[in-house]
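Could you join me in thinking about how sequence relates to backbone shape in a protein? We need material for that, and I hope you will provide a protein of your own picking. Label the sequence line and the structure token line clearly, so we can match residues to local backbone shapes. Would you write everything just below, so we can both look at the same thing?
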Amino acid sequence: MTAKIGLALGSGAARGWAHIGVLETLVEMGIRPAIVCGTSIGALVGAAFVAGKLGALKSRLQDFGRRDVARLLDLRLSTGGLIEGRRIDGFLESLGIEGEIDHFPCRFGSVATELTSGREIWIQSGPIGRAVRASIGMPGVFSPAKHDAHGWLVDGGLVDPVPVSLARALGAEIVIAVDLNATLLGRRLAPASVESTPGVPAAIPSGIPNWLKNAAGPFFASVFESTPGHPSYFEVLANALNIMQDRITRARLAGDPPDVLLRPILSDFSWLDFHRAKEAIEEGRNCVELARGTIHRACGSPPVT
């Protein structure tokens, strides 16, 4: 009898597009998971896979540019984040990521954090779009989500960045986990994305991506600009959360290690580099290819020729 394979797709904002490459390559290898669990962006990509919309998500991202990222922003910050929930909901609906979790042949679960208590919340039923929204409320970036039973929910990465435990709880006998944040600590405090576009400087010393500042207007200059010699808002927020998630991930994986741990190299990605999907997807594919032998040994499947 074939063992049930589960995927634990980790958090990591824009780095999460690497999950698409991971999933595509695993399927090409003949590894088709029975259980998919995700935290934050891992929940979004995992839901697209479970709903049969991974191709639609990838196609949408082919033309997803910096202006598209800027259009997601809620410049009032009145909903608790830079990117408000209704715009995320609209993005999911436009891809057809909808329906009840129980209706899909592949089991799905997402991890969220209860804002008032800090409790880890596993969402395993109900509308799949709501499960994604509950998991993806990264503090300071995405707005929190209101849940009937738990009140306000924020990013699951605050408690379990790589949801191995949830995958096992749902019945996975072999778990392949993807940690997107393993290579981030220790890098220089500087803009991660420096490519330029006509008429837009590549980067500014404060760490705010210039494409975003240019697209969003003077709001970013007045609110987020740092003074000389000081790290910017984005640098402090991103690196503080990177430290936290790295420590939590190490502790959780030490206590409940996966059978296969994939760590794409994404250290040059900032949290808001959602327009760099092609590069992230390719790194996800490369990461799986490098671990091909380990994956086949763990899953007991012969290489696909």
About this structure: The radius of gyration is 18 Å.
